[in-house]
Amino acid sequence: MREGCIRMFISWLRPIIKTTAFRSYKRLLSILLRVIRHCRSLVNEKEGDFRERPTLALSSQPVANQPEPSLAVPLLEAPIQARGSHTGTNVQVPIPEPREETNISVSAYDTQSPQNPASSSTPISMPVPSIPMVIATPPPPPTKPGNTVDIILTPIVPEPQVKRYDRDVRVDNKYKPFKVKKGLMDCSEELVVEGGWQPLTHPEGALFFYEPYKRVFTDADVRIPATTDKINQAVDKAYEKARNANIPLDLLVELGLELMMRDGKEMWGYYFVDHKRRVIFWFEDYESSDLMKNIRGVESKSHVKYALHSQYWRHIELFPNKRILPKDTVVALKEIVMHAHAENITSETCLAPFAPDEVASMLDLVDHLEGESVSDAGGLLLTVFSDSTNKEREHSVWITARLMRLFSNAKFVNFCGQSGARLDVDQSLYGDHDNHSKNIALRIMNVILFGSPNAQSRAIRKIWVDEIIVQPRSKNFFDRLTTEWNGYTIFSTVMLAVDISFLAVPAVATQTPAIVLAYLSSLCALGSLMVSLILAGQVNDRRRGSAADVASFMVGMSRSHTRPRKPCANAQPAFALLILGNGVLCWSIVYPHFPHFWRHRPLDYISDLVRRIRPSDVARTCRQ
């Protein structure tokens, strides 16, 4: 008996020990992995210090400071615009770094004579690079004098004037199998472009071109010789105009060009990109509604800078290739997203242009960009996300640029940093909705439609503030509106059937007022049914689009009763159409009760009601 108990106890104890040992083993492995990663980071830091110290010992010249992390495309050679932009100064020419630590003779070039290098050159010890550099190709040949044409440059902004998504380039619809030749297929010859231009593919699939020496990005097809000649002249003219305007151009400045047609004339839209300040600029004064995004009251530079920041991120979003994502940029983006997430959780009037679930998804996405080690609740599994920072990964750059552009635009719209900044989503900076009750016609309409316009106006002001759509609320609003209209159609159908049945009663055929009111009720029910169906179809088409489509729909409705190009201070007359079905349906219900009212002598009924009201009751009501 005792031996059986001992065996049973041992059989119970064995799985417990196995399970405990297995879990401890997994936990121990996860801890060891973290310790190894920490030691590896310490070793890398020591190796970096060890590699930097011999450089100071082997060379008497100080090593140039490493450039700050930037989203600019790494330099291959001194840009053409740098030569001559600062007269009387020497420009340090960046060169590709070697694979091993060697001494390389670097010459300083005089900007006044770019063809002749300086006579002295000092050897500098180059550390082992951490980022592979692309071997530079020969610079593009100069434009032939005989091919010069009249180039017209006009300032633009990347959004919305770079029409990448509106090219409408047609593809041959004839089916013909492509013959693949034997052996390994080489696509390099097909993508070769004359003049030093490099074809690049956007993460979304678009083809664009980059000139690494003059640092130019464009969507124009430079594979066409005529276009190549024109764009080279446009580049030279843009840099020449910038120098003539005494605008200092940094080595990392980029130029964006867009081929445009205006009034039958061909012109080149341009903008410069400064990566240190993260703004765009031009060599002339520029005033455009595309930059202001129809925002009223913009009066200070500290406010406009957020619009320039948004356009800068749009440029990075359009051309993300060959860029290295700085870690501090990802950290800044994570701080912004975390703040928006916390505000969504703790406030119902959050200014973030995204719903709470969307912000939570963004936070997870940024965590993947930064790279983290995440263990499960029991500590059994360790998931390691690769770090995308300080690496050339165009997809990560595009993700960061897209999110930063949206948040920068939100700061500009909400007057960030200004004395009149919008602090909650319901706040109107212009006081547009304060005059909604001063119009006599609106008061009459509100009485006729049983107070529905005022109720609808309050609901619309929660999603439509200063002609700006509150995106997180607009979807719920239109869903609720569509549900109400579907209910109106059911009620209208019921009322229409009741009115027709009422007209079929023989006793009603002798009462002319009752017949007239029954017909009016039928017309109101039919009108409510038609209005609800039409509005439901139109709003459903609009709400399925983007926020810009919804905003244009709301602007079109709000300005349909005002003068063109006048900011609509009161959109209630137009938006009253949204509740017209409700008001007409109410009248269809009220009309059938009028015959009962007339049958009982309304004047006698009213006089009897007045006699029953006692003065003491009126006085008591007034005191309350």
What does this structure look like?
Strands 4, 5, 6, 7, 8, 9 and 10 form a seven-stranded mixed sheet that branches. Strands 1-2-3 form a three-stranded antiparallel sheet. The chain has 18 helices and 14 strands. The termini are far apart. A hairpin with a 4-residue loop joins strand 9 (265-274) and strand 10 (279-281). 24% of the residues are buried. By secondary structure, the protein is α+β, with helices and mostly antiparallel strands. The chain is extended and about 95 Å long. Helix 6 packs antiparallel against helix 7 (356-370).
What key attributes describe this structure?
single chain, 624 residues, alpha+beta, seven-stranded mixed beta sheet, three-stranded antiparallel beta sheet, 11% strand, extended
Low-pLDDT segments, ≥5 res: 46-66, 81-138, 561-570
Helix content: 40-55%
The chain-level mean pLDDT equals 74
What is the makeup of the main sheet? Answer: 7 strands, mixed
Radius of gyration (CA) equals: 36 Å
Number of helices: 18
How many β-strand stretches? 14
Shape estimate: extended
Structural class: alpha+beta
Instruction: Kindly estimate the percentage of residues that lie in beta strands according to DSSP.
Output: 5-15%
